[in-house]
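Support request from a user on the community tier.

User writes: "When I paste my structure tokens into the form, the page sometimes reloads and wipes my input. The last time it worked, I copied everything first. Here is what I submitted, just in case something in the input itself triggers the reload:"
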């Protein structure tokens, strides 16, 4: 393997060369997954870090699921949905109702994965119902439709006494653990990554570039939009179910427009159209919120201000439309390299 010459370069260039070389190693992702799974079990088992740090890690995982799922619609498909907190609330309420009212207490730790799955499936069904009329509109109009959906869901939960009404549901068992959060986070990333690089995922990308041209090229844009929206809604419901069982209390006020705005900030902070960007955005935003907690309400001013500055100097976010090589299938990576070589050869002046 050819080595990268480092003579005459700055420290920044050398570190970037080393980092790019590390990104190219295909074995790095499986190694990191194995290490991550081992740590997710070892940290709570041997109390390697305190409960506060474990809680932050759980919130990071939940936010990464939310960011990755919304990025599928807003980043990869190029639409603009602002109702993600609505789907999150559906998953949270379904899981909370199963825990507090329907399932036996003794079996809750064993049935927890099914509760999370149920929350995701009901959220996906709601997402399908919302998507059918919504995708007759685009852009700002879709944002208005999804915002209206968020308000409708919030009002429905506030007016149903069986689910606590405006008081919400207290006393939810704390079933969300670090291993389960890690599992659902990896599952969300894996499913969305495979979808993006599938035949339907190519259709999603074509819609972002030009929907009319996609129709002319025989892309079933309606079907592709529905699939992307349903997958996004499913994982929003999964994140909501995990969130309910770590917060141990939910109410309609928890899932308002501010929550949707937080998710949007994470998406555009990390970068649109990038799974790596979703991971980075969710992690940075969660950690910064905790670091700035001593500032009180002023942190809610600084975080949007950070987004404004980012949009001015880097409109696509930190990793906008770029990806770690780990997440790119090998055949796509080889195809890209061959295309670049052909382009360089065609652009080279004839001798």
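"...and here is what came back when it finally went through:"
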């Amino acid at each position: 393997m050819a080595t990268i010459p480092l003579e005459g370069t700055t420290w920044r260039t050398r570190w970037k060369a080393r980092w790019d070389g590390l990104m190219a190693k295909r074995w790095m992702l499986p190694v990191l997954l194995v290490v991550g799974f081992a740590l997710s079990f070892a940290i709570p088992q041997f109390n390697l870090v305190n409960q506060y740090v474990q809680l932050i890690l759980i919130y990071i995982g939940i936010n990464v699921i939310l960011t990755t799922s919304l990025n599928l619609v807003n980043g990869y498909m190029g639409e603009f949905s602002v109702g993600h907190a609505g789907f999150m609330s559906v998953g949270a309420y379904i899981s909370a109702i199963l825990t507090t009212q329907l399932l036996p207490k003794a079996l809750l730790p064993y049935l927890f994965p099914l509760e999370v799955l149920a929350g995701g499936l009901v959220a996906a069904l709601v997402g399908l119902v919302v998507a059918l009329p919504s995708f007759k509109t685009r852009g700002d109009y879709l944002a208005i439709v999804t915002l209206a959906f968020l308000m409708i869901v919030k009002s429905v939960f506030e007016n149903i006494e069986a689910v606590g009404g405006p008081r919400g549901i207290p006393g939810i068992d704390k079933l969300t653990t670090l291993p389960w959060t890690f599992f659902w986070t990896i599952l969300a990333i894996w499913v969305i990554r495979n979808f993006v690089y599938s035949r339907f995922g190519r259709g999603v990308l074509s819609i972002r570039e030009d929907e009319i041209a996609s129709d002319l090229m025989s892309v079933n844009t309606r079907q592709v939009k529905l699939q992307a929206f349903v997958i996004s809604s499913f994982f929003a419901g999964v994140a909501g179910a995990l969130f309910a069982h770590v917060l141990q209390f939910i109410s309609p006020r928890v899932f308002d427009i501010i929550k949707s705005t937080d998710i949007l900030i994470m998406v555009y902070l990390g970068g649109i159209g990038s799974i790596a960007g979703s991971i980075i955005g969710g992690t940075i935003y969660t950690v910064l919120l905790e670091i700035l907690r001593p500032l009180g309400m002023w942190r809610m001013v600084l975080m949007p201000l950070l987004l404004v500055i980012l949009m001015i100097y880097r409109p696509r976010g930190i990793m906008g439309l770029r990806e770690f090589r780990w997440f790119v299938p090998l055949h796509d990576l080889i195809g890209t390299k061959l295309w670049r070589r052909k382009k360089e050869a065609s652009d080279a002046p004839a001798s």
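Agent notes: The reload is a front-end session timeout and is unrelated to the input. The CA atoms of residues 36 and 210 lie 39 Å apart. Residues 55-255 form one domain. Escalated to web team.
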